[in-house]
Fold this sequence. Notes:
It is globular, with a radius of gyration of 16 Å. By secondary structure, the protein is of the alpha/beta class. It has helices spanning 3-15, 30-43, 63-66, 81-91, 129-134, 152-169, 180-188; strands at 17-25, 45-51, 74-78, 94-98, 105-106, 116-120, 137-140. A seven-stranded parallel sheet has the order 3-2-1-6-4-7-5, with helices on both faces. The two termini are 16 Å apart. Strand 2, helix 3 (63-66) and strand 3 (74-78) form a beta-alpha-beta unit. Helix 2 (30-43) runs parallel beside helix 6 (152-169).
Amino acid sequence: MTNERKEKLEQVIRKRQEGLAVVLENVFDPHNISAVMRSCDAVGIQDVYILNTKIPRHKKWGAKSSSSAAKWLSIHQYDNAVACFSDLKSRYDCVFTTHLSSDAANLYQLDLTRRVALVFGNEREGVSDEIRALADGNFVIPQVGIIQSLNISVACAVSIYEAFRQRADAGLYNGPADTDYHRQLRTDWELPQG
């Protein structure tokens, strides 16, 4: 590994956000999943949860959509919602779903500097009732058009870039990278410690 490559990986690891995750529930199209992974990598999200309770586990992602982002992310796959949420609740303070409902908070009113996981549902039905019942609340992306939804990868990108903005303003991308979390990433990526 060249020194330039090591430095690039170290820069990326320093910006990885331990307290921010994306969850995809029963997303059918692997290209949508890959596009989400690419956006996650772009804003420093390391942990992506793939929950498949109604569809088979994906064997591969759309490589062209992700530009190999999956290689650099921690992908957690579940086929049981309760097990997935048990893991999420142990790692994050809040789990929010995207869902158009009367009790949904506006994305721009959420405090995304906390330890938070954002759940996005599938292309046809959105987030299921079961998952909404397990979550801490719902949020919506404000829109003024006739169609009241976005493609899942676009909705995810809009949401996590708002998290990126809030976290950057709060200085969370400038924190120390000497935590157990960051040390484990160096090990996973075969980057020399120290």
